Amino acid sequence: MKIFLATPKSMPIEEATQVRERIETFVQEVYPAASVVLASDEFKRMSGAFDGWAGWASHVATGVDYATRKLQYGVVILPGPVMGKATATIVELRLASRHPVVMWDGKGFQKVVAVNTVDPEDYVKGWEALVASQVH
Q1: Distance from CA of residue 43 to its chain's centroid?
Q2: From 119's CA, which of 25, 92, 105, 127 has a CA 20 to 30 Å away?
Q3: Which of 106, 112, 102 is nearest to 133 (CA)?
């Protein structure tokens, strides 16, 4: 299973790599073949194939592998609750199509159920994930 780790552009690559390694180790205990792809790596690999951020976000959120007809990414993982516009778009598209999104809390995962707009003018950190325990 391929997993998309929605690390923000502002996260230093060394930190993003450490988070990816921790999550991959954690997930591989249950899914040995799982691989975690950093957002920055996927963007470098595929952004030119789409017309801007919206096309790329749609590809990440709901894109299908042409050979297997399965989602490109089995799950999207957020490294924390705060996110920018592109990640918020990915999460909203995933949730609308009923595909899993979870947030890593350093020890495990929490199911993301919604995105809250905090400041729509702040494209770097203007949105936050709401997890199941926050919604009543």
Answers
A1: 12
A2: 105
A3: 112
Specify which residues 38 forms β-bridges with. 5
Distance CA 51, CA 48 (A): 7
pLDDT at 49: 67
The model's pTM: 0.91
| Per-residue pLDDT tens over the stretch 97-112 | 999 999 999 999 999 9
Q: Count up the domains in the chain and report the number.
A: 1
The two three-digit tokens of residue 95, written as one number: 């949730």
Range of the domain at 51: 2-134
Nearest to 109 by CA among 135, 62, 76, 84: 76
Q: What residues pair up with 102 in beta bridges, in sequence order?
A: 77, 111
- Measured distance CA(104)–CA(22) in Å, rounded: 10
**SS3 of residue 114 by DSSP:** strand
Whether the predicted pLDDT of 136 surpasses 50: no
- Phi and psi angles of residue 128, each rounded to the nearest 5 degrees, phi first: -140, 150
**Residue 47: is its pLDDT beyond 90?**
no
pLDDT of 77 over the 70 cut: yes
**Residue 75 · residue 109 · CB < 8 Å:** no
